[in-house]
Amino acid sequence: MLNLKFYYFHGKSYGYKEWYKPFCVKRSVGNKGKCPFCECKEERIETFDNYFLIRNGLILIKDSIFILHEGINLIVQNDEYFISVNGEFIKLAEIEKTRLKKLYKSKSIKPYGYDKEDHTGYAIYFNKNEFNTQSVSKRNNLLEMKYPILSKYLKQYEKQLREILINAKENPANFYFPRRGSFINKLGENHKEELLDLEPLYDQSEKIFFKFISNENIFGYSNTSYYATSDTYFLWPRFSSKKIDYLFILAYLNSKIINFLFKVKNLSIKRSKTKLEQGLPIPILKSFHSENEKLIIGVIKALTFCLVKFNELDYGIITEDLREKLTQVKDNLSILNEKLISKFYLALEKKDRNIIQFLINKLFFQLFSIDEDKIELLIKKFY
DNA sequence: GGAAAACGCGTCCGCAATAC
DNA sequence: GTATTGCGGACGCGTTTTCC
């Protein structure tokens, strides 16, 4: 069994030094000192901010104007949208419908997904990139011609919106657009800053998100359209060249290991993403070489895929994709003991997310060679 | 049991930092 | 200097807790 060595955070001692082995990346840190987590002097830990940029969702000039609510200023009937302009409801053309984005509040976020039925309304989302012109007033004119109804709707509140922007020393002519959360500056391939348009990422990329204010490690996931406002943090890929294994990371973030780290590192998320970016180690997949380790990782991913699918389909149909993953899990069950195998079959039968989560936790402990009982003991002792 | 105080949470304000 | 995003925090409202 592992030699238990304690580490110090916030004046308390806990944790294995060995924990950090899967996270340590060989990298020269010059004179900055040694890696805080293991004895190597030239290695350092891989953290969150080497993979992700954490950003709030959309920050609108005024939510009550930009978020349309069914029954109040929006009517949805048989896939047709009617929006309230000067007291009457006007039907939106097809092209205008593309500017309405179904919006979720952070309370709809669940581990591995979100509650699809729980959307709060529709956000009006115009994209500055759509209009290829240098002049701001020309751009607004083009927008008004292309989207006559939506722009008329916003024009009702133009004065109020402009005042807010002027007050914030921002360009009042941008009153049609989200203030933040639609573009981010990020380091490009050649170490040059580039502006990343987030609309296609919100619409269709894989993405992980979590509540702006929370002390639990609940991380949601979507690979289809998911929009939220500033009460949600999104994890955007920091480097386009660095491939991110979303299923594995998602499983890891929702696991008991991270739950433990949240506790020991006091990582309650409340208006401080820095702690999270620099405090959470990310396991380096390449550091797992053995066949057994690869097998465990494969099973973790397959189980995570099941959980994502259960969320999406609400325990419904098992697709071909899922069937394939399930077969893979069954084939690889030899790494689990008898007791776990029977648990696993029970979980599949009952579509029980908790049991699948339990299994994922077990597999992570196995992968990282961590003694789960000692972790339990530490949690009981300190929290 | 009711009033007052404290707290939690979401919104969005506005200065700081940075690019051009 | 201007334009734009980043980020901390003020503010306000609703909920919970405390106090008498």
Automatic annotation (TrEMBL):
Pfam families: TaqI_C (PF12950). This is TaqI-like C-terminal specificity domain-containing protein. Residues 183-270 form the TaqI-like C-terminal specificity domain. InterPro entries: TaqI_C (IPR025931).
